[in-house]
Description:
Oligomer: single chain
Helix content: under 10%
Low-confidence stretches: none
Amino acid sequence: MYPYENPLKIPKVEKAVALWTHPDGQVLGSIYLHMGEPDRSSGEDPWSVMNGPEDFLVVRCQEPEELRFYNKASLIRVEYGEAELNLAESGKNLPCRVHLMDGSIIDGAMRKSLPPERSRLYDYMNTDNPRFLKLYVGPASVCLINKSYVGYIMTREDSPDA
């Protein structure tokens, strides 16, 4: 027996986000994440949705309340809160400052498990090729940054590996 009421409907949950789009600026709304099945993983997270193969993202906007389909290439960054950061994926903390092409500067830390000989920020930037980088900007805040809008990234002074 299927665990959901309608077996033809894909169960999803809304996740509140703040999007910065080109050229509109900040948009507040929600994106849709697949829910995990009771006997499997916890479901999707915003990073996997933003780096997925689909070119468009479904967003339910707050003002005006409407459904929009944003081209991921036009999204500069996506911010959201996480009640519990996934420490299992955290790996080494790589404090950095990201300078975006629109003049914004975002301080945070990238985290990834890398071999000791390849554990610098530069190595992280060149390890894989996601469309959006994951930057931890607070104890429960994440900023996904479109690599196409990054001017440059530098290590922060509080980084022991700077």
